[in-house]
Amino acid sequence: MTDMFTRAITRKPCRALVDGITTSMFGEGTPDYESALKQHSNYVSVLKELGLEVTELDGDERYPDSCFVEDPAVVTEKCAIITNSPEISRNGERYEILDTIRKFYDDSRIFYIEDPGTMEGGDVMKVGDHFFVGQSDRTNAEGAKQFNDIVTRFGYTSSTVPVTEGLHLKDFVIYLENGNMLVSSVMDDEPSFQRYNRFVVDSDELYAINSMNINGTVLVPEGYPKTLKIIEDLGYPVKIVGTDEFKKIDGSLTCLSLRF
Questions:
Q1: Catalytic option among 14, 40, 67, 255
Q2: Whether residue 79 lies in the annotated active site
Q3: 0.70 cut: is pTM over it?
Q4: Distance (Å, rounded) from C-alpha 212 to C-alpha 215?
Q5: Contact 69, 253 (CB under 8 A)
Q6: pLDDT value at position 61?
Q7: Residue 248 CA, distance from chain mean position
């Protein structure tokens, strides 16, 4: 089953973006605010071109990483889960996204990851009616258990995958639909993914693993020709999107929106 999206939620970058958390996993340097605004505006335009109705939230200067709206919530066709980041500078984002989530889900379909469980949405990858949940520095076993208890009420299933090489699961594996995955060499060996068609992305283009299928068209970060060719050779229409400013603080395509 292929997910079809009609809506997205985004949040504009704030000026405090320059203080966003970074592991320097994909790039060095400090984001340029004006350039980030332009890249974000283009990202939103592409979502709209692909038919999504986008709810655009203003930047929130209290939370430098708040443009990465995928992390404080997980949204599905049937329910929404407000997550619980272990990062103090990000934990408050979940309260700020809640009013927007309530515009689309009634309270009976909104659930919460509670302490001692932790989770960020970047660790949650949906494949059909199954969720792969990365156990990482941001998402722990208790958070994954609570998530499973929630989604199974709605007919979904979930399982956990160890994240051993960086921040979030979706930095190292992404589902392109149609049984196809982009993976790092480490995730290529993950037993959970052996049933899928896996395409290993070269180590110098790992950032491009986080490409994003929107209703059959794949958004690909700018500047990664080998990964672009893999996706094009699979027959997907593509749109190239610049995200260099967000890369400097470990941000990429999927984390800039909630799609449902």
A1: 255
A2: no
A3: yes
A4: 10
A5: no
A6: 96
A7: 16
